[in-house]
């Protein structure tokens, strides 16, 4: 391949780019990043990075406003391409107009205002820079066109080479000294210049000595270009080497040909060095693609994990806390993984962020609903307290007793209330209940001597504790059965004392007669036959009371265990059923007592 067919290598604009992932930065970090960019000496070449920071800032701002429940006006993102000044100014003006839209007073106003000021200052500075740069390029185009005109005029002279060649050299030096022209004119102006240079060498009758001298000079320069291109192959930064190679190609075109016997050789050498760098450049980006594909695969797995967690059914706060820890651990892993491809990186991040947002959104909704429920429960229990306090002075003992039993049932059915108010509410409710039942017990009829019954049961407990075992199992079993019959024959005790005295009786029997055989215990349970219908009902009433104590103790044990809600619910249902039976038994016992007195 001859030198005349060197392919054009399009020069990229001198732009400084960054691989920083701004999408994962906070608002404060993004403001700081823009401040650092604005202070950089190369800031005018960093406009793509500036636009990336701005886009990340407004995505993050809109996201955080949405999370905070603040309605916001979206700020559009414009493409930041290195276009001609007119179109770029138009895009930047539109962006500025969009940025003027503000949000009503909210916690984000100040940081947004600060960022807008930074960006607007940079935008104005860059607009002026672009105008100046474009003006310089336009001026350079005019200068190069003038050089070409001078070159054309030189070709028309057809004078002796001694007069024309020095002028040709001066024209070449002027051409090289002129800076870049607008991109759209670059190829055409260079091709025109090269055409007239070739014509000069072909048409002017130059003597061999000067021609060979020029060929030699061109060869020396192009050998230097080859050496520089070969040295670039050792540059550890493949991207930087590729950019420098582009500059060498541009300079190569600015020099004339070499002697025919060296043209193919020098071009092949330069092309070989170019090929090495191009291959490394291609291999570099292929390797980057593989790494980015691996990163994408890893991040996809993390997205799937978070999406699975975000879709789980959660009913308890401890589950939310455990799943939140899982999400946090996944987020830490995410930060250790590098970028995906430019095309996929933002998409996969948006997917990951959406899954996290879904989880935390559901968690927020759960606690909002939970808070509403406990506040509703608080209102219900306050209402029960108010009603209990209104009823506590009632002397309609039977009707009010039934109502208090119903209030206590409702209390247990109502769910949790705020922890700080739970104990105070319970004490307030219990105080009203105790006041009523205490007054009711004081005004009991002679046949319902609750305090006398309490004393009788306390004396019986002392007898059980004082009993000395004979060692004869049959005799001790008989004594135990006698104690049980006496206990069951004693009537009701004051309401607030029943749980305590029943527990004391149970402990005394267990402690004293723990050594009796299982058969003896079983016979004890069925030994006493009720002497009358009233005795039978009283015996059943006492047995139900003991069952309720057991169930309530079980609830206390279950409450200390995780995932015990089904068992607690079952125990509560048994307690409610037993209390309903107690109410019915108390009515029957009272009816039999009244009939016998009449």
Q: What integer value in Å does the Rg equal?
A: 48 Å
Question: Structural class, from helix and strand content?
Answer: mainly alpha
Beta-strand level of the residues, as a percent range? under 5%
Q: Helical segment tally?
A: 19
Q: What's the end-to-end separation, in Å?
A: 134 Å
Largest sheet: none
Order of helices and strands: HHHHHHHHHHHHHHHHHHH
Helical percent range? over 70%
Low-confidence stretches: 1-13, 72-104, 521-530
User: How many strand elements?
Assistant: 0
Mean pLDDT across all amino acids: 78
Quick one: overall form? rod-shaped
Structural description of this entry:
This protein is 76% helix and 0% strand. With 598 residues, it is mostly helical. The longest helix has 51 residues, at 260-310.
């Amino acid at each position: 391949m001859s030198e005349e067919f060197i392919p054009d290598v399009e020069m990229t604009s001198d732009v400084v780019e960054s691989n920083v992932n701004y999408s994962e930065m906070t608002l404060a970090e993004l403001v700081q990043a823009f401040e650092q960019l604005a202070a950089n000496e190369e800031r005018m070449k960093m406009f793509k990075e500036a636009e990336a920071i701005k886009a990340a800032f407004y995505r993050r701002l809109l996201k955080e406003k949405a999370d905070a429940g603040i309605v916001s006006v979206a700020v559009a993102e414009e493409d930041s391409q290195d276009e001609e000044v007119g179109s770029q100014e138009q895009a930047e003006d539109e962006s500025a107009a969009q940025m003027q839209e503000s949000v009503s007073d909210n916690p984000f106003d100040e940081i947004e205002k600060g960022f807008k000021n930074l960006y607007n200052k940079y935008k104005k500075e860059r607009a002026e820079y672009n105008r100046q740069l474009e003006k310089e390029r336009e001026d350079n185009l005019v200068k190069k066109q003038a050089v070409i005109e001078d070159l054309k005029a030189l070709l028309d002279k057809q004078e002796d080479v001694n007069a024309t060649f020095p002028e040709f050299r001066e024209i070449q030096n002027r051409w090289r000294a002129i800076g870049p022209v607008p991109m759209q004119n670059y190829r055409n102006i260079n091709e025109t210049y090269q055409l007239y240079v070739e014509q000069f060498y072909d048409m002017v009758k130059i003597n061999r000595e000067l021609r060979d001298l020029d060929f030699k000079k061109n060869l020396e320069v192009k050998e230097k270009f080859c050496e520089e291109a070969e040295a670039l192959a050792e540059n550890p930064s493949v991207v930087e080497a590729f950019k420098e190679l582009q500059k060498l190609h541009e300079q190569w075109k600015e020099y004339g040909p070499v002697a025919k016997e060296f043209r193919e050789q020098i071009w092949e050498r330069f092309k070989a060095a170019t090929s090495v760098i191009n291959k490394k450049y291609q291999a570099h980006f292929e390797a980057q693609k593989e790494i980015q594909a691996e990163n994408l695969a890893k991040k996809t797995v993390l997205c799937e994990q978070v999406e699975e967690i975000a879709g789980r059914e959660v009913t308890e706060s401890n589950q939310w806390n455990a799943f939140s820890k899982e999400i946090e651990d996944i987020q830490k892993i995410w930060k250790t993984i590098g970028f995906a491809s430019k095309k996929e990186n933002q998409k996969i991040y948006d997917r990951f962020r959406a899954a996290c947002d879904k989880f935390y959104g559901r968690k927020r909704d759960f606690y909002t609903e939970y808070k509403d429920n406990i506040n509703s429960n608080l209102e219900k229990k306050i209402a029960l307290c108010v009603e209990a306090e209104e009823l506590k002075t009632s002397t309609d003992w039977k009707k009010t007793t039934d109502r208090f039993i119903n209030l206590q049932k409702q209390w247990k059915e109502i769910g949790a209330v705020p922890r700080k108010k739970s104990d105070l509410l319970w004490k307030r409710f219990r105080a009203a209940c105790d006041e009523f039942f205490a007054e009711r017990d004081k005004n009991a009829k002679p046949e319902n001597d609750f305090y006398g019954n309490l004393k009788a049961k306390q004396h019986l407990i002392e007898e059980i504790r004082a009993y000395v075992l004979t060692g004869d199992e049959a005799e001790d079993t008989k004594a135990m059965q006698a104690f049980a019959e006496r206990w069951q024959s004693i009537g009701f005790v004051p309401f607030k004392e029943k749980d305590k005295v029943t527990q004391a009786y149970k402990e005394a029997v267990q402690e004293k007669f723990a050594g009796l055989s299982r058969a003896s215990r079983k016979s004890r349970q069925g030994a006493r036959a009720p002497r009358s219908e009233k005795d039978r009902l009283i015996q059943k009433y006492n047995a139900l009371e003991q069952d309720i104590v057991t169930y309530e103790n079980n609830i206390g044990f279950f409450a200390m265990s995780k995932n015990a809600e089904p068992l607690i619910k079952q125990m509560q249902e048994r307690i409610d059923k037993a209390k309903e039976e107690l109410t019915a038994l108390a009515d029957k016992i009272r009816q039999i007592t009244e009939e016998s007195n009449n």
